[in-house]
Amino acid sequence: MIVTAGGEEVHVVESGDPGGPPLLLSSGLGGVWFDWAPTVELLDKYRVLAFDRPGLGLSPAAHAAPSLRREVRVLADLAVWAGAPVVVLAHSMAGFHAEALARLHPDLVAGLVLVDPSYESDLACPSMRVAAATVPVARAAGAALEATRMARVLGPLGRRIVLRFTSHRDEPADEQTVRSVYGRGTVLGTVLAEELAYREMAADLEGLRERRPFPPVPLVVLTALGDYSDPDRARAWADDHARLAAMSPLGRQVELPDSLHMVQLDRPDAVADAVAEVLREAA
pLDDT at position 158, please? Predict the structure, then answer.
């Protein structure tokens, strides 16, 4: 279904028990609803709402450029529509958005599960913002790939390459579904635009941390360590995530040595256990 949220139209897939506690699932950079498929199978006693950010998956092209402010607006409206307060499951870069939502709208959040979230610190808010200015270029690049039909080749190929390095599992969707998503020029242009906006979002979140406290809600941070062959880099990543878990007095970190970055594919059981823990703490 297509839902209007934050002034954007977003594709939402609902599953599970309509009467269960609402869960809102947000993917990382370039991710889509079916990235959560193995995890969703274990969440059938909850009301599960997996959505695609504007321009990604099957969501129409965005009206506004990607930014922390836009993503919080979308999440907030989806949370209200779902029946707030909700538990937000956020992977990778979406962790920025989920944390910002909790800080700005604590009444909408019952708890958070951050799935190998992105972490940045000591980033000053930029004096010049270039991400929004580059969106037309990113969209034009996507349109060119669509017009030349290169999107149908490069998009699915890029998806396969990325997944090879971020998950031990095969693609969770069939080939036709993957092509229908990653073969769209709009999606490829949006991925580029989000990549360009990444550091600005991280800097905006750093500024928000100084102004708004994190609420005392249940929080589980899942840390994938299978990506690192260097023990020092693995320890540094785990330490970063420990800082995120410490944002809440009800925060906890779970280290997953056997998982790559796509934890929701590699360790859906760990994600499901984290959800159950957050809801127990929230009760």
Answer: 84
> pTM to 2 decimals?
0.93
Residue 70: the pLDDT is: 96
Instruction: Judge whether 193 lies within some domain.
Output: no
User: Which stretches of the chain drop beneath a pLDDT of 50?
Assistant: none
The answer to the question of residue 137 being in a domain is no
Query: Do 251 and 154 contact (CB within 8 A), yes or no?
Result: no
Task: List, for residues 24-38, the tens digit of each pLDDT value.
Answer: 999 999 999 999 999
Nearest-CA neighbor of 265 among 56, 57, 27, 96? 27
At residue 155, the pLDDT reads 76
In single-letter form, the type of residue at position 137 comes to: V
SS3 13: strand
Rounded Cα gap, residues 150 and 157, in angstroms: 11
251-256: strand order across its sheet: 2-5, 8-16, 47-52, 22-26, 86-91, 109-115, 219-224, 251-256
Domain membership of residue 236 (yes or no) is yes
Q: Measured between alpha carbons, how far apart are the two ends of the chain, in Å?
A: 30
Task: Report CA Rg, the chain.
Answer: 18
Whether 176 is covered by a domain: the verdict is no
Domain count, the chain: 1
Print the domain residue range for 216: 2-126+199-282
Q: Pick from 138, 102, 95, 101: which is nearest to 117 by CA?
A: 95
CATH number where 71 lies: 3.40.50.1820
